Each structure stands twice: as structure tokens, then as C-alpha cells.
């Protein structure tokens, strides 16, 4: 990605989370544990879904793809953040900064659309169960995944197309541990008001649009479940609780940042950490601990390997 001749900034300085050496060691220990657990947990979900025939359903196909996106999101900035805890002068090249912006918005945009697809899957399964196998076939699931990635990438490109050619001619300190788009835009040597409005509009359309679609879908589903007999609704309600928990924890910080993207408080750094480092951990924790099918598949996989080792 090349930048214009007006841009004399070749690298950005990341101010990180703290200047305290003790705090940085503490953060390193905590976030290393979260990072490793997140990556291994999501890999475990993909392996379990791929190897267990009992999980050969649209919901788990979409869940496996969600885990893949979470693995990608775990790796766009967290490894550098962990290494930077041991570096006094934390820098990132101009190209690396633009790459982080592109990857973050691609993964986040894709995950938003995939969560909507998972809500649609639950909607059909609960509200139209007799037509579920006809509507939610493998081809439709692949189309959902393709659309989620396409929209995420296009969403990211629309941001990057304007950001990469901004004139960065002096200030280069980003008050975060990664290249956060609003913070980078503020460093441009020009009036960025119109750019800020465009960024806010672009991000709000996809985030609020997906969030409203999810709220409407899950409201209809919950009403349907409530009017059914308790014998057939307990498992559906448990699955819905897991889905809704992920949606709330994912969209909460996201909507907060998009409502006040250019007016940052000190606590926003730690919300950014939750959003980029901790959010990918939600998938394996919530779906593994609350989903009986996944836990059963884990036991079958474990027993299979134990028996293989014994033989």
C-alpha cells in the first residue's frame, strides 16, 4: 500500500496500555493466557466440528467459520502487542498500520454478518422446523459465509481507500496498542471532520444494521419459544442464550466505539483490549460450556484418542 508524497510519516508510535514496567509484565501474563486459550479453543471447535458426524449441521458449519474468523481476529494485533510489552519504543510501519486497519475491519465486518446468518439459522430451525432441512442446506451456508467475507472486506476497503492517501506529515503517536482507525485519522495534517463523518456513517450502517436484524430475529424466536411447550423448548432456549450472550458482548463495545469514535476516554483502551483480545475467547467458552452437543463431541473425540493410544 503506497501513500502519497505529502505523507512523510513512515512509521507510527504506539503508546500502548501503560508506561509502568510492572503493569506491562502483568498485562503480558494475562493477555498471553487469553491469547493462547482463545486460539487453541477456536482451533478445538473447528477440529471437533470437522471430525464429528453428529455436528454435521448448518449451525455448526457456521460456528466453525465463526471460530476461524476469531482465530484471525486474535492474530491481527495481539502477537505484536505481546512483543511490544518488552519494547520501550513501540513502532509500526505505515504499511503495517494500514494492514492492521484493513484486517480489523474485515474480520469484524465478516463476524457481524456471520452472526446474522447464525440468527437466521436459529429462526428457521425454531419458527419453521418442518422446512429447516430444505431451506438451510449446505449451499446456502456457503453463500452466507461468502457474503460475510465479501461484505467485511468491502467494508474495510471503503475505510482504507480514504485513509491511505491522507497527508500524514508530522504527529505520529497513536494512543493505543494497535492502529485504531479514528486515532490514525486524527493524526492527518488536514481538517478531518468530513472524513470522520464518513467513517462514522460507514461503520454505523453495518454495525447498527446487523444489530437491529439480530434484535428482531431473536425477539421473534424468543416469542415463538415462549409459546411452545417446555419439553421441546429447553434445548432451544439454552442455544439461544449462548447466541444472544455472544451478540451482546460482541456488539456492546462495537456500538460504543461507533457512537463516540472520535471522543476517547482512558477507559477506551481497555475496551479496545476486550474487543480485540478477549472477544475471540467468547466463542469457545460460551459454546463449549453451554452446548451439550459440543461437550458430547469433545468426550467422543477424547475417548477415541484414549482408545487409540491404548491399542
TrEMBL record:
SUPFAM superfamilies: Family A G protein-coupled receptor-like. It is a multi-pass membrane protein. Keywords: Cell membrane, Disulfide bond, G-protein coupled receptor, Membrane, Olfaction, Receptor, Sensory transduction, Transducer, Transmembrane, Transmembrane helix. One of its GO terms (cellular component) is plasma membrane. It holds the Pfam family 7tm_4. It is found in: Cell membrane; Membrane. PROSITE patterns: G_PROTEIN_RECEP_F1_1 (PS00237), G_PROTEIN_RECEP_F1_2 (PS50262). The keyword Cell membrane applies. GO terms for molecular function: G protein-coupled receptor activity; olfactory receptor activity. Residues 41-287 form the G-protein coupled receptors family 1 profile domain. It comes from the Eukaryota. The keyword Zinc-finger does not apply. InterPro entries: GPCR_Rhodpsn (IPR000276), GPCR_Rhodpsn_7TM (IPR017452), Olfact_rcpt (IPR000725), Olfactory_Receptors (IPR050427). The chain crosses the membrane at residues 25-48, 60-78, 98-120, 140-162, 205-225, 237-259, 271-289. Belongs to the G-protein coupled receptor 1 family. Putative odorant or sperm cell receptor. This is Olfactory receptor. It comes from Canis lupus dingo (dingo). The gene is LOC112675492.
Amino acid at each position: 500500500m503506497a501513500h502519497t508524497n505529502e505523507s512523510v510519516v513512515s512509521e507510527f508510535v504506539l503508546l500502548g496500555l501503560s508506561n509502568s514496567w510492572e503493569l506491562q509484565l502483568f498485562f503480558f501474563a494475562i493477555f498471553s493466557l487469553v491469547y493462547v486459550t482463545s486460539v487453541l479453543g477456536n482451533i478445538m471447535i473447528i477440529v471437533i466440528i470437522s471430525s464429528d458426524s453428529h455436528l454435521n449441521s448448518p449451525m455448526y458449519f457456521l460456528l466453525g467459520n465463526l471460530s476461524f474468523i476469531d482465530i484471525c481476529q486474535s492474530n491481527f494485533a495481539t502477537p505484536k502487542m505481546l512483543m511490544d510489552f518488552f519494547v520501550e519504543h513501540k513502532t509500526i510501519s505505515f504499511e503495517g498500520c494500514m494492514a492492521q486497519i484493513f484486517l480489523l475491519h474485515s474480520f469484524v465486518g465478516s463476524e457481524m454478518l456471520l452472526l446474522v446468518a447464525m440468527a437466521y439459522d436459529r429462526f428457521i430451525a425454531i419458527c419453521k422446523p418442518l422446512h429447516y432441512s430444505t431451506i438451510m442446506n449446505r449451499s446456502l451456508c456457503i453463500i452466507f459465509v461468502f457474503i460475510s467475507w465479501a461484505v467485511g472486506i468491502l467494508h474495510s476497503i471503503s475505510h482504507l481507500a480514504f485513509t491511505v492517501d491522507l497527508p500524514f506529515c508530522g504527529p505520529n503517536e497513536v494512543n493505543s496498542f494497535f492502529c485504531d482507525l479514528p486515532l490514525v485519522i486524527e493524526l492527518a495534517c488536514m481538517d478531518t471532520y468530513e472524513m470522520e463523518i464518513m467513517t462514522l456513517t460507514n461503520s454505523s450502517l453495518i454495525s447498527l444494521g446487523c444489530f437491529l436484524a439480530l434484535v428482531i430475529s431473536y425477539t421473534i424466536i424468543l416469542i415463538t419459544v415462549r409459546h411452545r411447550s417446555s419439553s421441546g423448548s429447553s434445548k432451544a432456549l439454552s442455544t439461544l442464550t449462548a447466541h444472544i450472550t455472544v451478540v451482546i458482548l460482541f456488539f456492546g463495545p462495537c456500538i460504543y466505539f461507533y457512537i463516540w469514535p472520535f471522543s476517547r476516554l482512558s477507559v477506551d483502551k481497555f475496551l479496545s483490549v476486550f474487543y480485540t483480545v478477549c472477544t475471540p475467547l467468547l466463542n469457545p467458552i460460551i459454546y463449549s460450556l453451554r452446548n451439550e452437543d459440543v461437550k458430547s463431541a469433545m468426550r467422543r473425540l477424547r475417548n477415541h484418542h484414549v482408545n487409540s493410544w491404548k491399542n
